[in-house]
From TrEMBL:
Cofactor binding remark: Binds 1 heme b (iron(II)-protoporphyrin IX) group non-covalently per subunit.
Protein name according to UniProt: Deferrochelatase
Lineage: Bacteria, Bacillati, Actinomycetota, Actinomycetes, Kitasatosporales
Gene: efeB
GO cellular component: a single term: cell envelope
PROSITE patterns xrefs: DYP_PEROXIDASE (PS51404), TAT (PS51318)
Dyp-type peroxidase C-terminal domain mapped to chain residues: 228-409
């Protein structure tokens, strides 16, 4: 979890002129400074909240909202967190190469554009026939293996080098990595599932599913007033996230127009981790013990040194017992940007629950997704620090992992990835 208590509710600050309405700000973009759950941050679902003067939107308005399209970046990065999400990775079929990949991305891009406008999907499913776009976003990325499969090794970014191993890793390779990756998010479960089925059907014989995961977050308007959400550990989660209003936000999150390779201009790198929360062990702790693990009060997310959720922790403050109030191994201390050379990432996670295991423990936790211009200076820098002594590590387990190059938004008439594949 890095200490990402989503800024109240932490949605990136986007002005009306940037195309996102106040109604669409009824959510939080789960961004994480390097201080958030690198449960990749144990951060769980960062919920929804409105801007300070907004009241929760009526449910009848949820279906009418459309995500902004056609910008410098793909949708699904800067938007508020979605209530429902699907992650899916594909491998190109045997014999499929660059030509087949280009044709597939053309199909996928056209379908995504249509669905994000709220148009009924072609085909026989009609799952979302009665719904509007519901803020649907679809985001596409390329894995390390994609470039060798398509003969484009010289275009593979150095930033896409495999992540190093971490001590909390117990990775299932069958549910990790992949040639192609898609992130789907929406505020309606049927709209999200409809997009998943449409894109899977579009893959045809060109690619086959490698793995697929489902997630959720708090629904817009679920709370009486705007507030930061809680993760599945019950912790307020989402403060200290980088915001677009910060002068160095773009530099830390997006590849510059002068970046290398050129086809990644305006893009970002997504680290995707499935992180199991060992909830039975966690819930055996007293509230006081849980707070010492995190370094924040469970009731309101404020640091143990006092104040409110957004108060800066006093890391050197000593209690009456002569010990620092925020323990040396507290998650909030170790994951802070100023404790990690300023490393930061924009976090947009989903929580997940995949049933009860044979031993009676819940298969639940975080589908951690973070965005950064350079994974080595973002996720890897923070996770290495957490790996060396984060108290939270005893209560989480990283079970799958992926790193994907997500190109910038396509220009008018282009498909996603065209600058690479053509």
């Amino acid at each position: 979890m890095q200490d990402t208590n989503q800024l109240a509710e932490g949605a990136p600050e986007v002005s009306e002129s940037e195309g996102i309405s106040r109604r669409r700000l009824l959510g939080t973009a789960g961004a994480v400074g390097a201080g958030g759950l690198v449960l990749g941050a144990a951060g769980g679902a960062a919920g929804y909240a409105a801007t300070a003067s907004d009241a929760p939107a009526a449910l009848s308005t949820l279906g009418s909202t459309e995500a902004v399209r056609g910008g410098e970046h793909q949708p699904g990065i800067l938007e508020p967190l979605h209530a429902r999400g699907h992650l899916i990775a594909f491998d190109l079929a045997p014999g499929a190469g660059r030509k087949e990949a280009a044709a597939l991305l053309r199909r996928w891009s056209a379908t995504a554009e249509r669905l994000m406008r709220g148009e009924v999907s072609d085909g026989a499913t009609a799952i979302a026939l009665d719904a509007g776009p519901s803020s649907l976003t679809v985001t596409f990325g390329f894995g390390h293996s994609f470039f060798s499969r398509t003969g484009l090794e010289k275009q593979r970014p150095g930033a896409l080098d495999p992540l190093p191993p971490f001590s909390s890793d117990q990775l299932d390779r069958k549910r990790s990595e992949g040639d192609l990756w898609i992130q789907i998010g929406a505020d309606d479960a049927l709209v999200a599932f409809n997009a998943l089925r449409a894109l899977q059907n579009d893959a045809g014989s060109a690619a086959r599913v490698r793995w697929q995961m489902n997630g959720f977050n708090r629904s817009p308007g679920a709370t009486a007033h705007p507030m930061t959400a809680r993760n599945l550990m019950g912790q307020v989660d989402g403060t200290n996230n980088p915001k677009p209003s910060e002068s160095d936000f773009d530099r830390r999150i997006f590849v510059p127009s002068s970046g290398d390779p050129a086809w990644m201009a305006g893009g970002s790198y997504a680290v995707v981790r499935r992180i199991r929360m060992l909830l039975d062990d966690w819930e055996k702790l007293s509230v006081d013990a849980q707070e010492k693990v995190i370094g924040r009060r469970k009731a309101d997310g404020a640091p143990l040194t006092g104040g409110t959720e957004t108060t800066e922790p006093e890391l050197d403050k000593v209690g009456a017992d002569g010990k620092v109030v925020i323990p040396a191994d507290a998650h909030a201390r170790i994951s802070r940007p100023d404790q990690n050379g300023g490393a930061a990432m924009l976090r947009r996670p989903f929580s997940y629950h995949d049933g009860i295991a044979a031993d009676g423990t819940p298969d639940a936790g975080l589908l951690f997704i973070c965005w950064q211009a350079d994974p080595l200076r973002g996720f890897t820098a923070v996770q290495r620090k957490l790996d060396r002594g984060d108290a939270l590590s005893s209560f989480i387990r990283h079970e799958s992992s992926g790193l994907f190059a997500v190109p910038g938004g396509p220009g008018k008439g282009e498909y996603v990835g065209q600058r690479l594949l053509d």
